[in-house]
Amino acid sequence: MRYAVPDSSAVSVHDLAHDGLRLVTACSQEHLDVLRQRYARRPFIEEELWIGKIARVLDKYPDGLRTDRLAEAAGLTAGQLELALQWLNRRASQRWQQY
Length: 99
Hints:
With 99 residues, the protein is mainly alpha-helical. It folds into two domains: 1-44; 45-99. Helix content is 57%, strand content 10%. The protein is built from four helices and two strands; from the N terminus they run E-E-H-H-H-H. The chain has helices at residues 29-41, 46-60, 67-74, 78-97, and strands at residues 2-6, 21-25. The chain has a two-stranded antiparallel ribbon. This is Winged helix-turn-helix domain-containing protein.
């Protein structure tokens, strides 16, 4: 049994309409309920989803793109691109502070 759960870390390579959804497979209804509850507790962070969209574009353009082209290719506004990069920088900074 399969079910799509919201997950801001999931970005589809083949179908952009599935960005933000993770397909989970369960062997029973009880198992599916456990998986759904687990994902329901995970916060959906828009900036995390946007970073995934940016990464998908950069995989196609390893030499990079101008900021305006990157935002457009990722389907984001310039403001969303900036917020995503700020989120990524904060997250990286927090990881370094752990060491």
